[in-house]
């Protein structure tokens, strides 16, 4: 019989009839009494199953044999049942009794364990319930082999019926197994808890000093696999302090000498993570160096190539985080002739990272050797690596260029092409430094099949039109096939010819004329056509200016394209040895389960975001944190806490006044108190005109406000809040800081809710704050506010005030003293960070890359659950001075937008933004962690408000 | 964790297929197989992700062992597990793992797969223990009836000393120790040493009664004390890295650098190590390729053994690469035989026995056929294979080997040394 690879449903009729006969024979054999004939029959069935044949119709006949006392036969029957139970749930119920009986077998622990293990694999909800009793008993079994099987079984059944398992308290029982006396049982319990944790999305394995001790102890006694589960669990622990981290490291580091690479890498994972918690540089160094030899051993010749591959991928991460670990041992990364290609490519990757001015000679020597090998992919990457070294190491660049020069001379097609591509980058990085190789470059024009190589060559010619004498003929040759070239080559031809014309008008005149004509009339590519049009216009208006623009200085490039962003790197370090470290991707990007859990968490977050939106709609209580906002406490409805809170409140008020006293507001206060009395009589006369004047300020505001997001007013002073000096109540103030062009303004809405008092002579002063904000003038230009009236005012704010060393808190509030004719009020005005964004874009792409790699930045992933058109999003951010720095696409084509804003104090805020139809994923980087929630909030405001 | 395991033959047919979690379908495996066959050279990474499923595989000769998963598993662990699984199979099938024996023993393999993984989580992979309770034809009836025996087994599987069953008895206690070193060497065309490394292992065969504790001491620098660090000759050997069998207590080793262990029964690898300093390179090789004319090439090769005079190298094979278009080779040598082997694209010079401190040479006259000149010949490196008994390239020696057990306990101990060529390469 041939071996079909798919099911037999499609097989021909003749084979089907023969097949039917076979089935009949098997049925007969299964129903016989002789154990041998049964065994033979079921072996045949399993064989057919392996080959992908459908033998499910035999289920009843096979299942009948479950109750056999022959263990081998039983195992085969179980194997069959596991395979088909899912598609035949009704029949699977038949198996339940046998499991229940076997799980309670008095004599044979293997039989009990087999039943427990197998019943967990029958993933049919219907029968889970019947299995719980035997499972519960097996958790308390006297035999550790049964208990360790039971631990895993709980995680199996959890995946089938999570609610049932939780209701029945099995998770609790699983947790209790952490206290088991047998190390393998503990290790399996740890593993099972982590599996449940992953599906459930909440912490199941409580890691605290107590459980950590348990795990560490178990690790000493269980087998190598158990050690791995223990280590992987430990890696999730966040140590209390450096001391604890060091103590754990001491217990973990001996595992680096284990024979199993899984153990070694898991130990490295903990070491890498916990080193961050140590303070003493010497301890860090010593611990880090412990990893060196074990890691290199993973690359010994003769080690399994697949394991070497995983090791190389992880070494690549580890040395980016802590280069000290592998500094000297470059030779192990030299490629062996017989290494599989995937290892060779990884080794080149590591070599490029390790290259420095001391070892470059040696590395270059190796790389040159590789360029003579036959595998095209490997050779090209070797050439590219030479180029990377040149860009990375300025001092060694010349040596690298010499090496590339030799590559050019080989005349081997793919070597030459790759060399040209990297030489382009080198010319870009070191302009006009290595002109000596131009001649050899120009000799290789014919063999350029690869469009990128061709485009690179043309770019080089364009760049050196003044040096390359026959540049005009060369470019003319390239232009001949202009229309048939791929877009990037066309593009470069256009740019190069433009450069030729600007530098050598006489030689390029005809060429540019024809080219612009072709490009504008015959080309369909809009980018190219537009560029041609722009050039045309530029040339026809001001050729000198055009020259300036075309030959403008370009930002320098660096070898950062291969480094992993720090935020991702940290995440990957946490997953050393795992698949994510090999894919260099976050786990949730390829594990659906994790993503589902994450999404449900995001759903929770949406609520938070909405809460934050509301807070700006005038629910000031949301603004307050434990530090207390002035206004909200009186709105507070919980009785017990309100008294305490009001006490705190009062203390705070005192503190506030003390603080502001320090601001020397005291000097003003006597005046403030005097002035009101003088002016108190005036207001009534002005009552009527006042009402009319009330509106204009708002109107005049509006045109200005259209540009920036308008932050809604928040109540900052409630009518019930008494003044600090005369305890006057009845004044309500709503306030909002706004950005208005490049100015920061404070909008105040002052409402007089008293029956008989008139407020006037307003003044405002800020407490010291981190961004040095202060009003331009203390006095507020405002008409007196009569009872029942509201006035809206606007004050300009500058950033020359005194500075407070305290970092901003979330929510960010400015403490102010608000002076009126009658009393002085103290309150906080909330502020959106977006108001502090500087209106000029000062961060270049280069700077952005530098900043994003800086070590001392705080990083966080956030998700904004809002639906917004991507164009609108970009426009809104840009309009609020959150500037687009660059756009990248990852391998899946997802657009990653890089944004940056500068705060008025010069701090840079960075964000990588991924737009999705349902949410916006943010990757925030700020110089101080307390700015994180503020930035998140600010972006939320910008995108949700108008 | 692992969702499924399969054994696949060269044609991409599934020989063994065991599912541990039902998040994977057979069709995904067959698709992967089809892909593997299509890209026959197996150039791709051993770990690939297709549609959210990760395929992790190793190749043992013509057999591919494939694990699939949908989670972010510890892939280093999975790969190591797959290799250990292949070793388990080999231990059952007399060192062979091929399509034939898989087909013949598929029932047994399924039984093993049921025990080594539970829900895709590695449980036990020690062949010695597995063989105690998984046998072709099932556990013998008498064992499965003997409660005491069964209990001992489960204790062994889950116990702290899971590698050694209790109650062993031998008439004579014997312990054999082998130090086996592979020299990996890479020498550039200009005769500079690019890489020299010894990967060694200490293999033990124990036939010991009871639960004895053993201790081993070597002339390792760290074991001998740190004071001698500056004087290399007396200070012992600097071992870069050591890896131990699980039976060696690692915390104790970390504390006082003593290697103490309760050995498994029978043959096992106690430790492996790596040394990269002060390696005694056993052979000096000198080779000259000279183009006589367009279709004539001459190779002159000299090797010199630089180990002690009373040590003999055996089974020496020097693989001298020759161009593809080699038509005829005339070789002349005083020692051994040289032969052109077309499949290997080399002349292989074999010497049965070579005393220390001896120089010998080979000369080959090669006639070349017509060739298209475009592809220049990229010479692969020259490779040497050899075995040198009673010699260690690293200089490592066993200083003592103790077996400690209660009562009058006598043990016969044997110690042997062997160095062989690993990746012993000269670039040309």
UniProtKB/TrEMBL annotation, chain A:
Entry's Gene Ontology cellular component terms: clathrin adaptor complex; endomembrane system
Positions of region (Disordered): 1-22, 615-642, 668-706
Compartments, record wording: Endomembrane system
Keyword Membrane annotated: yes
Comp. bias regions, Low complexity: 1-14
Source superkingdom: Eukaryota
Any Pfam family the entry gives: Adaptin_N
Annotated ranges, domain Beta-adaptin appendage C-terminal subdomain: 839-943
Domain Clathrin/coatomer adaptor adaptin-like N-terminal intervals: 23-542
Compositional bias segments (type: Polar residues): 625-640
Keyword set includes Thylakoid: no
GO terms classed as biological process: intracellular protein transport; vesicle-mediated transport
Name the UniProt record assigns to this protein: AP complex subunit beta
Lineage, top ranks: Eukaryota, Sar, Alveolata, Ciliophora, Intramacronucleata
UniProtKB/TrEMBL annotation, chain B:
Lineage: superkingdom: Eukaryota
Domain (MHD) ranges: 172-427
Compartmental location: Cell membrane; Membrane, Coated pit
Bilayer topology: Peripheral membrane protein
Any one annotated GO CC term: clathrin adaptor complex
UniProt entry keywords in alphabetical sequence: Cell membrane, Membrane, Protein transport, Transport
Biological-process GO terms, alphabetical: intracellular protein transport; vesicle-mediated transport
Pfam families documented for this protein: Adap_comp_sub
Family in the record: Belongs to the adaptor complexes medium subunit family.
Annotated protein name in UniProt: MHD domain-containing protein
Organism per entry: Paramecium octaurelia
